[in-house]
## 1
Amino acid sequence: MAIHVTVGIRNPADRDRVWEGLFLVDTGATDCLVPRQHLEAIGLEPEGERVYELADGSPTLVGVAVARVEFMGDFVGATVMFGEPDAEPLLGVTALESVGIEVDPRNQTLKKQPAVRLK
């Protein structure tokens, strides 16, 4: 069973421009992945490229930018990867940890912690 959560991706330079979708919570992914067309629709373009390692160990070069990522009543400025048009949106572990959300794998739920860890 997979955990999904509704996430808003907002252009930090123009907060009226937002795309909302259902994201797979992926604790194996560091950053968030969004299909390219949705990022472009809200005015985001790649600010650079980064090499990521895929699940099979192979490297891939991906365009990246910073977006305002909003979920579960909170937000964080996070790196978003420009994914292929048919890619499933992914919510990575950095965004989760930045707002104090932990994954409960036994119950397949997300838990908001009372405070964000500084250590």
## 2
Amino acid sequence: MRNAIALFVFLLLVAIVATLGSLFPPGDWYAALQQPFFTPPNLVFPIAWTLLYLTMAFAAWRVWLRVGLDVAMGLWGAQLVANAAWSWIVFGRHALGWGLIDIVLLLVLIVVTMVAFFRRDRGAGWLMLPYLAWVGFATVLNAALWHLNPAG
């Protein structure tokens, strides 16, 4: 029962981050930006993020099962904070440059979290790989948007 409750808590944490992000939808401002040719259709984002949040929660849960609360969990929490901040910065404040700084920080935190996860549970580390790949792509997209829309 304790393990199921812990999994629920990790799922709840990523759901909170997802909900915070949804408070700042792209909206008309984003739609009016000049988009790079590789911008995915809008439908891709909620599908990708749902799957990523689920794998992030499951990865954290696996590490928690092995070692409980330790530095790896702190890193996981830190990357969640950077993740949550991005939507507010970019869609809420319309600050593509600051968003780029945040997403680069997020990318670094994901890598460091993955290293910590691999050391505790290899499966958990691998579960973070799609997240790293997606945020890497999102970083390039953010940089391209900033370049194409310098006032952002």
## 3
Amino acid sequence: MNSTIEELHKDHKNIAKLLNLLKIQTEHLQAGDHVDSLQITNIMDYFINYPDIYHHPNEELIFDYLKQRNINTADLIDEINSDHQTMASAAIEIQDEVRQIMCDAVFSRENLVDKLNHYISAYFLHIDIEEDELFPLAEKILDDDDWQFIHAEIKREDDPLFGEKLNNEYEELYKSILNSVDET
């Protein structure tokens, strides 16, 4: 597996861990149970500050090269790139709404549950398309020169939650991930 694709694949595994935590909180919200609002805002903060800024642009760089080599992928790539923008906007909207709720603003529980469920399912579907269709196609179609250009242009940033150094603002979220792994 190509090293860049390997890094993106690793990111997807980590994103899935957070989506699963988010799903648990969404289920609590739907049931009317206690919800860890801070955990939800921290998850959305991570999505806004790492995948939306580094991971997705790196994918888009690969997909741009892929689209140049295989025009048949254009519609799917355009859809995936559009998903990146949609997910980024949704993450900001969800985070903002949960922060307002933490400050005693009144929102529809059902509406928030719907937004969260849609975000989670759309993100998982998005990852599946990249993993099952676009990444294998990129590895098959792109040549060494393409990968050289991609490696030179790619943005590299240590993951603030899953990287070598844990960013202080994500310590509680990291503990939640460890606890969720211990419970399974």
## 4
Amino acid sequence: MTTGSPLRVGIFVFDDAEELDVVGPWEVLAAWARLSELRPEVLTFSTDGAGVRLAKGLRIVPDASADDVGALHVLVYPGGQGTRRLVRDREHLAWVRAVRARVPLVTSVCTGALVLAAAGLLAGRPATTHWGAFDELAALDPSVAADTEARFVDDGDVVTAAGVSAGIDMSLHLVARLESPEAARDVRRAIQYDPAPPV
């Protein structure tokens, strides 16, 4: 991906976001930033710039507020119980639509897809989410072509990932897409990500 300025990736954080939805992509993308000659900037931001408490208690102090984050090339929108509140927040959904209009690539992890759907970003498009949230996705927008098998779905300017750990897979895909498969393999080796579940 060639741009006139350094690639900037923003991970939106909010109260009750799922920890791995946030830190999984962060780990992959921050490792990429250290290894890549593209030197992408990866940062976190919250609505007002204040700290947030994630679903299991991890606290994060973001780098910026939504107003101050600046231009982004990629938005990562995590899931978690906090999305259930945000899908009903008209002001927030208007913000999501406005972000979509100016950010070339919008991505979600897990139930972050519910917020994208509520904002109208997934209408008529293929998408995925956590295995336990497909009924909620259909209720929010029955036109979404739900993929219940994929770890992530790349539909061009919108990429959605399945539940929690799938955000790591999606983020490696983003590295491959934005730079190269070789760069993604370098990142995968650096973080020693080679899934072989013990159970």
